[in-house]
Specification:
Elements lengths: L2 E5 L5 H10 L7 E4 L11 E9 L2 E2 L1 H7 L6 E8 L6 H13 L4 E9 L4 H8 L11 H10 L5 H23 L1
Parallel strand pairs: 1-2, 1-3, 3-5, 5-6
Antiparallel strand pairs: 3-4
Helix pairs in contact: 1-6
Length: 173
């Protein structure tokens, strides 16, 4: 199987998860930041990683995803919200929907540190903004700053090891 891990990372969170995913991929698997990734056509399997921006994969990864056709894919992402939140689920559903024409074999999402510039911008938002800096948001951002941690990396490795087992079944069948 010819495979690649392609990721977009703003603060290093998604890169860290990409490296964890890459560690369980078959020998010879390529890993690229999205800005350096080759065309996806030559790969059988792609692990695509993104950071969440406004409820969907970031723009650079969206552009790459649009070029992926007829592939087996695993998706992973990082975000400042709780990974079991509606926001996280909705974001991953949007990412899966973006992969129409491909076979999405699994997904993984975890918290990650939010860019300090974005936190500063949120702190200036008025009380009617959905991203107002209240105590609950401050607590969530403080927790997000601790991620991705080794537990997140282990969970990503476990998820992608399972996805790879499924790709073996597809190749054998």
């Amino acid at each position: 199987m010819n495979a690649a891990v392609v990721y977009s990372s703003r603060t290093g969170n998604t890169r860290k998860i990409a490296e964890a995913v890459h560690s369980v991929m078959p020998a010879g698997t390529d890993i690229f930041p999205v800005e350096e990734a080759p065309e996806p056509a030559s790969y059988d399997f792609l692990a695509l990683g993104f950071w969440v921006d406004k409820g969907e994969p970031d723009a650079a990864m969206l552009a790459y995803m649009d070029r992926v056709q007829g592939k087996s894919v695993g998706l992973f992402g990082t975000l400042g919200a709780w990974p079991d939140s509606d926001h996280a689920r909705d974001t991953m559903q949007k990412a899966v929907a973006r992969m129409q024409g491909n076979r999405v074999l699994g997904t993984f999402i975890c918290q990650g540190r939010v860019d300090p510039k974005l936190i500063a911008a949120m702190a200036k938002m008025g009380p009617n903004n959905p991203h107002v800096m209240d105590e609950a948001r401050k607590a969530r951002l403080a927790e997000a700053a601790k991620h991705p941690d080794e537990n997140d990396c282990a969970a990503a490795r476990k998820t992608f090891a399972g996805i790879l087992r499924e790709t073996e079944g597809l190749c054998a069948g």
